[in-house]
Amino acid sequence: MRPIRLPEPPTQTMGVPEIFAAGAYSVIRRAVVIGNGHPGSENQCVGLVRALGLSDKHVLYRVTRPRGGINEWLHWLPVSVHKKLEYVIRQICGYSRLLSAARGEKPVRHPLENGGNVGLSSVLEADVRQIVTMARETYEKDGPLLVVASGRDTISIASSIKRLASDNVFVVQIQHPRVHLNRFDLVITPRHDYYPLTPEGQEKIPQFLRRWITPCEPPDGHVVLTTGALHQIDSAALRSAASAWHEEFAPLPKPLVVVNVGGPTGCCRYGSDLAKQLTAHLLNVLVSCGSIRISFSMRTPEKVSKIIIKELGNNPKVHIWDGEEPNPHLGHLAWADAFVVTADSISLISEACSTGKPVYVMGAERCTWKFTDFHKSLRERGVVRPFTGSEDMSDSWSYPPLNDTAEAASRVHEALAERGWKLRP
Q1: Is 312 exposed, middle or buried (0-12, 13-18, 19+ CB in 10 A)?
Q2: Separation CA 418–CA 159 (nearest Å)
Q3: What's the pTM value of the predicted model, to 2 decimals?
Q4: Please, which residues have CB within 8 angstroms of residue 123's CB and are 6 or more apart in sequence?
Q5: Residue 416 burial by CB count (10 A; 0-12/13-18/19+): exposed, middle or buried?
Q6: CA–CA distance, 141 with 132 (Å, rounded to integer)
Q7: Which residues share a beta bridge with 150?
């Protein structure tokens, strides 16, 4: 618990205590999180807000895209262009339905925008004008507004808020925005986002394409570089999870090995071959494990999960989470003695590496581009080791845990101080 710091008595040069002399205009007491609906991106924003002490004073907005039908092929467009094009398509489809009705034809049902048929239509939409107006009108009463955004679709929203209300907001963009960095007050991004500027990255880019591959310039003074992804895991969260999941995990035989399986990405491709290799390695180390808990992510292909379930699902030492709530992820982080994580998920690896416990990575040799730089940096720091299937899982080793979120929060404090602002005590 933080000690209460009382204001100093007034002096002849200060008619009011310092806490009041600073004025309400200089203290940030609330935050707005702008997400894109992807848990990995929004988790980074909430993690930073939590580290800044504003977990109970933030509002979540989302930038949502039209979904269903042809919309699934239009996600490469800027979100504003996508929405306008979807509106035109809707008008055309509506006109077609009128003609069909006039001919007596049965209308065809089209998917609802933003997944309205599954409850997503109620998501609070990120609206630049609304957020800017709120920041301006509440500035005198509540002080400046902290805006934290992450994900490609949030870039135009966050930069517009900065442009229209620069005197009332402090905008933090997480992950490199691939645009001019002066559109934000602070950019927090992993070092591997600058892989294209490294000698290894330059060798892989044809000369005529180099000017088009971002980022084109090294980080400047208001860029905060991290090793991995930001998240909500810290010692307090682990203690709370250990208590909440004590009844389920405390009786399990040790060592408890947690296996997190993600899914293939553009920079880390794999399929059933990796699933077969992973199950073979797990069967090899099973003798040194007390128990194994396996979790799949939303990105895990069915063909991958089926292989793992078929090979390990009936083993008495193995429990595979069925995807039903409650999600045991926090309990896994708190109670695991070691982790095995597929190389595709930077978020899952970053969270596991924040515990200081052994982390084994499966499939890093399949990764390309900036993912290779991420895994190389972790290996050089002694934070992770490759999972080969020859390990004795009862052997324990440790390292200084990754502390990216707390370090990024410290840099936010410094940047606010340079502007004459501060976060609420």
Answers
A1: buried
A2: 20
A3: 0.86
A4: 37, 62, 64, 114
A5: buried
A6: 15
A7: 174
